[in-house]
Amino acid sequence: MSEQPARTLVTSALPYANGPIHIGHIAGAYLPADIYVRYLRSRKRDVVWVCGSDEHGAAITLRARKEETTPRAIVDRYHEEMQEAFRGLDIAFDHYDRTSSEEHHAFAQEFFLELLKKGAFTEETRQQFYDPVEKQFLADRYIQGGCPKCGHDGAYGDQCEKCGSALSPEELIEPKSTLSGATPEWRETTLWYLPMDRHEDWLRTYLEEGKLDGEDHHDAAAWKSHVLGQCRSWIDGGLQSRAMTRDLDWGVPVPVEGADGKVLYVWLDAPLGYITATRNWAAKKGVDWTPYWQDRDTQLVHFIGKDNIVFHCIIFPILLKEHGDYLLPHNVPANEFMNLEGDKISTSRNWAVWAKDYVEDFDGRSDEMRYVLASIMPEQKDAEFTWLDFQSRVNNELADVLGNFVNRVFVLTGKFHGGKVPGASGQWTAVDQALLDLMSTTPDAVGTAIERYRFREALQHAMGLVRAGNKYLTEEEPWKVAKTNPERAADILHLALQVTANAAILLAPFLPKTASKLSEALGTAGLPWDAAGAALVTEGQPLGTLPILFQKITDEQVEEQQSKLGPELEGMRDVEPEKGETSFDAFQDMDLRVAEVLAAEKVKGADKLLQLTVRTGYDERTVVSGIAEHFSPEEVVGRKVVLLANLAPRKIRGVVSQGMVLMASTEDGGLRFVTPDEGAEPGDIIR
RNA sequence: GGCGAGGUAGCUCAGCUGGUUAGAGCGCAGGAUUCAUAAUCCUGAGGUCGAGAGUUCAAGUCUCUCUCUCGCUACCA
Questions:
Q1: Which nucleotides of B are covered by protein (CB under 7 A)?
Q2: Residue A407: how many other CB atoms lie within 10 Å
Q3: Which residue of A277, A478, A488, A600 has the fewest C-beta atoms within 10 A of its own C-beta?
Q4: pTM of the full predicted structure?
């Protein structure tokens, strides 16, 4: 790998076309990539940035059924909406594609076949649920039933959303197909698996040392520690086989005879979308796409959020290497998560700042959001966005430092030099020289930080030049000097203008709108990055008119935005949807009783479990309950509770649990006992 | 329980391969100034660098133990 790659291919995580984009997404994978790419473009490097909608997967079909529409309609809607959000924040991909395109299907199939031919997969036949009414195999998410863990009656085959536990479909109590409501049957199906354990050795070398096939591949030290840490954790834990196909009808069909009703697993399908997108971009431009994915002088960078690390650093590299013709990532600068006003961002609770809403509420003010997000980007650890912080950064830094500096320079030039760039004598004082020095070193400081994916630091450096400009004006006082020494005053303003023009270039990756307004007004539009560091504006150049760059964010705006967070409906909660209809008989099957907790102790080796001894009035029994994180043993002894008494006994962590204690799970993420009213005694039947 | 990442000024965070009095921005106090969006500039207060032990001539920076937060994972209501 040479110091400077011949070209760079940048990707941002394909957003899932199942919901709108929020600032967490932007700060995680799109804004950093946008800054990085704008910088490289400004340096006139060969760079291509691709992205696209990830439009397959069970969640989308499930949602389509729920909304009584088609998967196509869902993905079409979000494909458009997401692009609108990106455009509104000036996130400027070279190409934005979608995985449901014909080209992608064809390419993904071709890629799959190649892997098949190379023996990358193992074929395994397993029992799987089949819906006899809809005549299809059921993906895990299409099966609903009682959760074996918490008893919650709407658990999915892969996960119970109530208790968060990972499940496999056969564990469900009374499983039902969510498609037809029918009871599914066991049938054999054949799926292709990726045996990842085969790849542990070279992956370790690739990640830890940056070496591939015995050659230097990338600088492993340049990777973020949390990215490497996660990968190490996965590999050390032993990599498992993972199914690369699914029985589903929405996705890229498996191109093998007899594989009707099977599609590629979205996690095989989606990253290949990067390649398809590049091919489509190249076709559009009439250039050859292959160097971007196959030439060793290309640098491949994936921008993602931390939830995607394992796929981009382990699974996708395995696929690429097995294929053999493609480059592996040179860096995956994953960001951590962005929290919001003290809580994690949550789509279902509407605890999010939606990109689309921001663009509507703050029309034309994309730079403000970009600036704030770049300032607090979760580069090494989770970060937090608050509207008060947004206000203070916009007002104190953008408006007061940058906006005001620019305004001072323009007003002074207007007043003392008729709005034209004054000439300079070339007689620089020590103070001038210090500023000139800073001006000449800042581009490199900013650029180096960007190339190291340290965007906050880069922005600090760029703003540092502006701060120095303010200091310079305040201390040199050209408005005073002009009265006694007009030549000196001209020098000062000339230099201040050079600083402004430099700032326009350096800030452009972060604040594209502002930067172009500035460089237009200064007559320096279109100058590349490498021009920065020196004099840019020329004597006599008339300045354009410049509006106030940044309006202050008012307290009212802050309050308005804060009040938008959370559930939208007055008095109504946005909770998980009601389950499908049940029958009286099914209810009758449950034997609910009042019981009293006699004793409680923690189950050793488990964080969440309490072992309870309860009195039912007719016996005493042991119940294991996953409430240890919410209640101490002392707190629960003596309580009257509601017990599901006839639940099949189950061995949990070595202890046989005979029944289940009912709890209400509350909005704050806690649990509350369901307690019978005064007078109810152990053994009382609940019906 | 296992693994990973964090715990640094009131707030948001930097501190690379250990080395002079631990930094930035905001906030706060005092002052200067008026060209400018009541903006700007200077000065100052403020930190036992989560706790404890160890290695070293020297530790925020390395090792161990403990503790708290976040994430993945296991057990799981």
A1: 1-6, 11-15, 24-27, 32-37, 39-42, 70-77
A2: 16
A3: A488
A4: 0.82
